[in-house]
Amino acid sequence: MYVTGLPHDATVDEVAQVFSRKCGVIAEEIDSGRPRIKLYTDAKGDFKGDALIVFFKAPSVEMAITLLDDTEFRFGELGGSGKMRVMAADASYKKTKVEEAGNAVAKDKERAKSSARDKMKIIKKTQKLDARLADWDDDVPSTLQETGTGLGGNRPQKVVILKHMFRLQELEEDPAAILDIKEDIREECAKLGEVTNVVLYDLEEEGVASVRFREEDAARACVELMDGRSFAGQTVVAYLSEGKEGFKKSKKKQDEGDEEGH
For the whole model, what pTM was predicted? Predict the structure, then answer.
């Protein structure tokens, strides 16, 4: 995506922080691990306020346009640079402006063919980004019932239902807050074991979230820890999912998940 109207003293790290916090995972250079962001400069080498940002997944571009277009880069800054314009980079722009990025990708691929070490770098980098994407993608169906495979009986019970984890008013006042809430839940639950998915059901008055663990023991430990605990001023209710709760979330989120094949 292409952004204009950035402050002339903005840095790559600052741009990455603003756009990744609200919109999704930014792609990274394979060798350096640096975010794939290009700041354009004038003939004197001074940053002119235009940037190219490459996200790991295409839906992040639409989210960035929705949340950040026509907003201030540094909210409330006195004498700031004005409002940003955020747009998708069209085909002609990509052809003329993203040549360097394309060449870098081509070189990375060429090195990967000739070096087993580079191949491992690519694999590890992709795994890392996929893991981080769990914070942005709801990679299970919109209701647990839709899976058609309940978690009762002999099936491992790895999904925990948490109630009173947020208030709908929070999401109404700041739609982007859903990302921060998911991150808080993930960080807290990850102390007990590997978390593979967090889903917020933003149409449920009880502030419902589901957390999927890699291991069943971690899920049970989560119930013991979270049930009855205070979280954001509310008393949490926690239990193992039976796979038929049928909680609801906004259709927009469901559609995004379907488009990505989850």
Answer: 0.42
| In contact, 22 and 84? CB cutoff 8 Å | no
Place of tokens 């402006």: 97
Residue 218 pLDDT > 90: yes
**Looking at per-residue confidence, does 151 or 231 come out higher?**
231
Structure token digits, residue 119:
């191949």
Angle at 88 between CA 85 and CA 94, to 5 degrees: 120
**Which of these ranges, 120-134, 175-189, 218-232, has the smallest mean pLDDT?**
120-134
Report pLDDT for 256. Answer: 39
* Alpha-carbon separation of residue 52 from 17, 39, 95, 218 (angstroms): 14, 7, 13, 41
Helix (H) / strand (E) containing 59: helix 59-68
| Contact between residue 168 and residue 202 where contact means Cβ atoms under 8 Å apart | yes
Superfamily classification of domain 144-259: RRM (RNA recognition motif) domain (3.30.70.330)
What CATH number should be reported for the domain whose range is 2-133?
3.30.70.330
Could you check whether 2-133 and 144-259 share the same CATH topology?
A: yes
Task: Please tell me the distance from the alpha carbon of residue 207 to that of residue 171, in angstroms, as a whole number.
Answer: 10
Q: 160-185 as b/e, with b when 16 or more CB fall inside 10 Å?
A: bbbbbbbbeebbeeebebbbebbeeb
